[in-house]
Amino acid sequence: MKQKNVTHLLATDLDGTLVGEKELTSALFEYYGERTYEVELVYVTGRHHDSTMELIKAENLPMPSILISDVGTEMYDFDDPELHERWKKTLEEQWWPEEISQIAAQCSGLTPQSIPSTHRLSYFAEDAGAFEEVKQKLEENGVPHKLIFSSGRDVDILPPNAGKGEALSFLLREKGWEKANVLIAGDSGNDRDMITMGYPAVVVGNCQDELKKLPEHPLIFRAENHCAGGIREAWEHFFEKETVESNG
What we know:
Residues 8-238 form the Sucrose phosphatase-like domain. By secondary structure, the chain is α/β, with parallel strands linked by helices.
């Protein structure tokens, strides 16, 4: 299959980032429509596939070229169905869900979430102590994993090579899009590994506390505006700087 030539790409979380304030979301896509280039859309979300599709319909969002769902454990290319299988194969190499479930069941303060995903185990944590307990037990038992704590209550346990950042990195390599002008946008802890990938990234103004603690970096823009308004603010900062300054 011939690879699509992409010059600009937005890889964004949905809830609390692209979605949250409808007027700002609409304004962002109007702004993109006025550019002289096309912006490729990749949605990178903690939601599962069906929930994401419902949100896209409810919020009247454009369909993305690629959907990365379930905190980076599922990947859907609407022009290349085989991409999903290739990503799934890489995740299977070190995924021990039975052992992880048994360990998590021994931890107080963790309540399983019902998530229709085969490469993700999710829990509600009563507090940070519950997260620290399962973290310690997984490490003591030598179980391969990636552990993510976000929004002060959500615990996701994934294969060690999963997560939003790993999935996005895999996608950019597979598509040959590494040299595109990429902006990554997020608002919570499960966005951390993609925000710190080394591409231009934005932490939106309404972000969760866990992202406020990120070290300062020239490629991480801390927006004042919330949600999609923060994405536009960062886009202008990284990719329209000369235009904005000349018009200012």
